[in-house]
Amino acid sequence: MNDVNDATVSGWKPDSWQRKTAAQQPHYPDADALAAALGQLRTLPPLVTSWEVNNLKAQIARAQAGETFVLQGGDCAESFADCRSDVIANRLKVLLQMSLVLVHGLRQRVVRIGRFAGQYAKPRSADLETRHGTTLPSYRGDLVNGPDFTAAARIPDPQRLLEGHMRSAMTINFVRGLIDGGFADLHHPEYWDLSWVRHSPLAVEYQRMVDMLGDSVRFMETLAGGSISDFSRVDFYTSHEALLLWSEQAQTRQVPRSDGWYNLSTHFPWIGMRTAELDGAHVEYCRGIRNPMGVKVSPSMTTEWVLALCRVLNPENEPGRLTLIHRMGADKIGDHLPALIEAVRAAGHRVLWMCDPMHGNTITAPNGLKTRPFERVASEVEQAFAIHKACGSRLGGVHLELTGEDVTECTGGARNLSHEDLERAYKSQVDPRLNYEQALELAIRIARVAG
Q1: Whole-prediction pTM value?
Q2: Which residues take part in binding phosphoenolpyruvate (predicted)?
Q3: pLDDT tens digit sequence for 139-186
Q4: Residue 109 assigned ligand-binding role
Q5: Is 431 annotated as a binding residue?
Q6: Is 296 annotated for ligand binding?
Q7: What is the CATH code for 3-450?
């Protein structure tokens, strides 16, 4: 028996979270309808496999050892309407382009984890939203309710759990099909081009990197005397916030010839800042599954709190098990991160450190739209690399909210988007995302500072 995840020894069961306080859960008015939907969900095939989960854990362990770098990115909250081939392909393209830049700059492999195929729910700061004197339940993502500000749309509907599973399955299937069909072949990075490449201020620098990597691939294959399969495809993993615990429990399975329980709705679940209470339901649920997992860490979390999370979520100090995703803000990271790094290292916890530069840098524009200034996002990442280096640590990845579409949600970047530009193509229902050009620019900045 594997003691690391022996649920019998730990007293954990897939439903033991129900004895804890569960934050950020919607109130379903029809309990019978919820039970029926969950019953169907439990019978549906899993979205990922246990061996894929184990492979990712091994990759994260390599990142902890400084051998690889993790790029995690995608939508703040996926929408059912965006489960389209063009949107999915563009999202995959920008992540592949970013990883190519990072491979070139960092001179090491990149592990790619998408924030997709299940990121349909979002925590909210308030249960209710008021507009023009009318108060309704907050929009919690398409997995829960609809974004339209009507009483009917805002009622939590358990049938959406089944639709979310279906659309996640279609997304994963399409991504796998693209990759297996050669879409991610390093011999042909031109497959990944988005229309901006023809006119972007970054086009020349990006093309230079593509050409240099192409020359390197051909050189290696000349030495090897033939094609190298690793250059023809890449591994791609999925992730989402483990937020709606009824849904997560329904996809928690045991598998043949392996001890413990796996969440087979995703490869890499994470715990958000709003649900990271030590005695809360989300920590209770996540401590018992075998997946590698992340925890968002904010300036409001004490060192003692974070150390306790490390002990609870990874009691055996298993390599590849735990990732700490710090989200401090550009103006706070210097004050809070160094002490946290030192404390975790002194306690001997094996973790992968990642930087989420998005959530701590959100502001409200004069027109009332939420936005994120690109320079603040880039500054937090650059500071994170410097702080880890000064502390004798290593930043092993970044966690980004981005899209492959030509949106205008974050200000700044190569085109210097202004507050006035936001209204041109602001499409997010929740948080602002980097557009494809800003995402690639950030990858180039990372390659420069960390290479």
Answers
A1: 0.91
A2: 115, 296, 327
A3: 999 999 999 999 999 999 999 999 999 999 999 999 999 888 777 665
A4: no
A5: yes
A6: yes
A7: 3.20.20.70
